[in-house]
Q: What sequence folds into this?
């Protein structure tokens, strides 16, 4: 029996059905939403909630498009974003999200439509770009969710939960440098140390990122106290006119701004290199005018690795090597995460910690040999031999 005035009725299958206007088309035609339940009371309570949400978020009264909404969201977030992040957000929107969602009207948003649109972003049917990998797809989905959350904050839509299966991660396993390779690099640098060569040691023995090494000035070193302060990074970013430029900005995260102790062997090298350099002199370039940018320093690193007879690796492998070496030497994970400038130790564990067969063998012997030694099984085995 239908409940007049409430849009609730009992279906032939025994369930109760309630309906409500969740949006309107351009011609003001109602778009209905439906709720089902086992009892009338259950459907009525949920229907009251849905009607309240639709009234509260004013679903039918806004003509704003997704592109306009995203521009407003980006403008509101720009004050707390670094320039490089802001440029990257612009690129992601223009390249991936706007071609699909740009002209969509915000008032028509629904989980189903947004999830279908996100699948088009990940693997476009018109092949306007290659199917996205796990990292890019996750970034686009995160941005879409943040924009929708912002729209809900403005009461333009109701809160929405967008769920999409993302591509599987296919990242190549990074193989840290072996002890022998680290020794060859250190011997090569000690023979004729220069600031650029010592920069390899700062990555391999302090865990610095390449941009952080490029951003070092001599004033960041306190050689008497034996410490180094990381407080800026150098990177090259794209500009909206299609060109690129070098920017000097704060480190990657708040935790990346850190003070770390310098090993004794490095302190001696740095003392010999500093001379009478002023605090504002850039460490790698040796002048106060401009720093060395990462793409140029990467070329130098590859030359040094070849001269040291070490396999070709990406500069970030030196940072992975530092993390793995510290952990294998017994460094606790919390201290290691502070060395690396991570806000969460889980990031350190998931991305930078590697083991090898030799280390695994040492650990298995360390754990089980004392348990096995002196046991009845051990005595029985000795008697058998």
A:
């Amino acid at each position: 029996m239908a409940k007049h005035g409430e849009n609730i009725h009992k279906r032939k299958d025994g369930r109760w059905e309630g309906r409500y206007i969740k949006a309107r088309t351009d011609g003001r035609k109602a778009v209905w939403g439906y709720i089902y339940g086992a009892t009338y009371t259950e459907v009525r309570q949920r229907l009251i909630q849905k009607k309240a949400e639709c009234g509260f978020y004013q679903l039918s009264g806004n003509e704003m498009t997704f592109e306009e909404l995203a521009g407003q969201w980006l403008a509101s977030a720009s004050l707390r974003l670094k320039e490089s992040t802001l440029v990257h957000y612009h690129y992601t929107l223009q390249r991936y999200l706007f071609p699909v969602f740009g002209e969509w009207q915000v008032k028509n948003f629904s989980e189903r439509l947004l999830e279908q649109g996100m699948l088009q972003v990940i693997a476009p049917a018109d092949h306007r770009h290659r199917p996205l990998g796990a990292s890019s797809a996750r970034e686009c989905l995160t941005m879409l969710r943040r924009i929708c959350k912002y729209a809900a904050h403005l009461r333009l839509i109701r809160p929405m939960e967008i769920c999409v299966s993302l591509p599987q991660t296919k990242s190549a396993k990074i193989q840290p440098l072996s002890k022998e390779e680290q020794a060859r690099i250190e011997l090569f640098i000690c023979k004729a140390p220069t600031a650029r060569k010592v920069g390899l040691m700062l990555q391999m023995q302090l865990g610095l990122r390449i941009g952080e090494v490029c951003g070092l000035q001599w004033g960041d070193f306190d050689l008497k106290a034996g410490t180094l302060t990381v407080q800026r990074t150098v990177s090259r970013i794209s500009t909206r006119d299609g060109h690129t430029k070098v920017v000097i900005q704060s480190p990657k995260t708040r935790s990346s701004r850190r003070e770390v102790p310098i090993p004794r062997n490095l302190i001696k090298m740095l003392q010999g290199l500093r001379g009478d350099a002023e605090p504002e002199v850039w460490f790698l370039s040796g002048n106060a005018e401009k720093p060395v940018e990462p793409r140029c320093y990467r070329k130098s690193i590859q030359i040094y690795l070849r001269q040291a007879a070490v396999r070709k690796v990406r500069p970030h492998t030196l940072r992975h090597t530092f993390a793995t070496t510290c952990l294998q030497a017994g460094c606790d994970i919390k201290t290691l995460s502070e060395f690396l400038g991570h806000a969460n130790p889980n990031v350190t564990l998931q991305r930078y910690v590697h083991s090898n067969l030799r280390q695994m063998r040492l650990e298995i012997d360390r754990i089980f040999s004392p348990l096995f030694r002196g046991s009845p099984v051990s005595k029985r085995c000795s008697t058998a031999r």
